[in-house]
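Good morning,

Attaching, inline, the C-alpha cells for the sequence recovery test we're adding to the shared suite. The designed sequence is right after.
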C-alpha cells in the first residue's frame, strides 16, 4: 500500500502524516507513507488546498485533516479491494 501526504510540510501536513502512520501501525498494515512537497506533483492530483491524502493513487482528502476513523476506514476499504 502506498500513502502520500501532499503538502508543503506545514504543521497540518505533519499532523496528517503522523495520523496516517499511527493508523498503519495500529492495523498492522505494510504501507509506505511518503511526503510529496513538489507543487507540480501535488497539482497533478487535482487538489488546490493542502494537506492532501492519497491512498493507492486515489485522493481521499484535501484541505483538511481527516479524523483517525476516516483514515482507518479508507485504508481498510483499500485493503479489501485488493
Amino acid at each position: 500500500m502506498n500513502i502520500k501526504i501532499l503538502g508543503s510540510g506545514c504543521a497540518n501536513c505533519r499532523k496528517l502524516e503522523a495520523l496516517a502512520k499511527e493508523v498503519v501501525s495500529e492495523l498492522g498494515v505494510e504501507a509506505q507513507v511518503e511526503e510529496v512537497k513538489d507543487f507540480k506533483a501535488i497539482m497533478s492530483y487535482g487538489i488546490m488546498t493542502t494537506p492532501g491524502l492519497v491512498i493507492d493513487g486515489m485522493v481521499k482528502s484535501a484541505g483538511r485533516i481527516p479524523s483517525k476513523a476516516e483514515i482507518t476506514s479508507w485504508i481498510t476499504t483499500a485493503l479489501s479491494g485488493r
